């Protein structure tokens, strides 16, 4: 690959201890090259400036950032501040918009679940990985035996039943007995709907809130 196409590297170091002395919470380091003998600064040629779209040599070399989380005053002014707030407080405010925080928020909710509920969710993930490998195996066996659709259909039905059972198990752990109306609706869901509802089952505050996400 041409050197001009190589992507710039950013090294981000998150520290929770008093590294050095300073008042700021974000420190940036750039590479400059100084001559050993005459102390001149290495500069890009005019051709390199045009090729790399730069003005200084440091712009094509790695940059280093130190985030001193404990120094942050919890006042968020931009998306980077939102991430630092999350790293410091393990909390994501509803109005945060930084890219990637939505997934981080979901992961944080799951991480904070009681042990039984977290174990049930981990089992769901393990089952899902196993199901994918089963379907891939069914395709291979089906091609050899000419019965691919029948094999896959049988496995899919088994997967759906197990997925429904996992969903109801998590709801029971969180909210107790499941009303027959909700249970009946769960029995009619397909795999995609069941997967979409799994996160809702883990984060909803009540069965009523969960049921609002069920199809009519």
Written overview of the protein:
With about 220 residues, the chain is mainly α. The chain folds into two domains: about 5-110, no CATH class; about 115-210, no CATH class. The chain has helices at about 45-50, 80-90, 100-110, 115-145, 150-175, 180-185, 190-205, 205-210, and strands at about 10-15, 25-30, 65-70. A three-stranded mixed beta sheet has the order 1-3-2, with no helix packed on it. Helix 5 (about 150-175) runs parallel beside helix 7. The chain is elongated and about 85 Å long. The relative contact order is 0.08.
How would you summarize what this structure contains?
This protein is mainly alpha-helical.
The major β-sheet equals: 3 strands, mixed
Any idea what the shape is? elongated
Number of domains: 2
Average pLDDT score: 79
Radius of gyration: 27 Å
Identify low-pLDDT runs. Answer: none
Distance between the termini: 54 Å
Structural class: mainly alpha
How much of the sequence lies in strands comes to: 5-15%
Q: Helix coverage percent of residues?
A: 40-55%
Q: How do the SSEs run, as a string of H and E?
A: EEHEHHHHHHH
**Total count of helical runs of at least 4 residues:** 8
Strand order of the largest sheet: 1-3-2
The count of strands amounts to 3
Q: For this entry, what is the oligomeric state of its chains?
A: single chain
């Amino acid at each position: 690959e041409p050197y001009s196409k190589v992507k710039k590297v950013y090294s981000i170091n998150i520290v929770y201890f008093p590294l050095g002395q300073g008042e700021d919470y974000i420190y940036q380091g750039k590479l400059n090259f100084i001559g050993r003998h005459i102390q001149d600064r290495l500069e890009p040629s005019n051709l390199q400036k045009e090729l790399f779209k730069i003005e200084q040599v440091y712009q094509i070399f790695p940059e280093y950032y130190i985030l001193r989380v404990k120094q942050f005053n919890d006042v968020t002014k931009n998306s980077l501040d939102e991430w630092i707030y999350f790293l410091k407080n393990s909390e994501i405010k509803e109005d945060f918009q930084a890219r990637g925080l939505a997934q981080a928020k979901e992961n944080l909710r799951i991480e904070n679940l009681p042990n039984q509920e977290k174990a049930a969710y981990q089992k769901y993930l393990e089952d899902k990985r196993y199901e994918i490998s089963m379907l891939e195996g069914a395709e291979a066996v089906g091609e050899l035996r000419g019965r691919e659709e029948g094999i896959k259909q049988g496995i899919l039905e088994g997967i759906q039943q197990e997925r429904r059972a996992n969903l109801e198990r998590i709801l029971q752990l969180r909210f107790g007995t499941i009303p027959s109306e909700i249970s009946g609706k769960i029995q009619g869901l397909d795999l995609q709907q069941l997967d979409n509802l799994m996160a809702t089952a883990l984060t909803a505050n009540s069965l009523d809130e969960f049921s609002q996400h069920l199809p009519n």
